[in-house]
């Protein structure tokens, strides 16, 4: 075996790693959980049908992980972020999730998530240098 650096991940490399890890995790958890699923809530311009922002998330092991959330600057402050998070929480509940977790940088929106009931469970200082990465979770009922 050899270790080969790929500066841009080949799709087949990612697939081999992900599929192997999913199989291993299924064995370790006795198959109690379905494989991870990916969902999106797209923020679309109704006139053009163009996606301008939204949210992507992964559902796995009874939790939803919000991977990405983006609202274009001209649409910020109009409630779209809270609506996206609220709809993600609704999807998570329907899927049987017990909670949602996410991370955000100090220059992004930690206060926004805290206002929505998310509790910080960790930070990573100086990532990127001069800033902090915040990890937050919300238990769903």
UniProtKB/TrEMBL annotation:
Pfam families: Acetyltransf_1
Originating species: Devosia sediminis
UniProt cross-references to CDD domains, sorted A to Z: NAT_SF
Domain (N-acetyltransferase) ranges: 1-141
Protein name: GNAT family N-acetyltransferase
Gene3D superfamilies linked to this entry: 3.40.630.30
Gene Ontology terms for molecular function: acyltransferase activity, transferring groups other than amino-acyl groups
Lineage: Bacteria, Pseudomonadati, Pseudomonadota, Alphaproteobacteria, Hyphomicrobiales
Superkingdom of origin: Bacteria
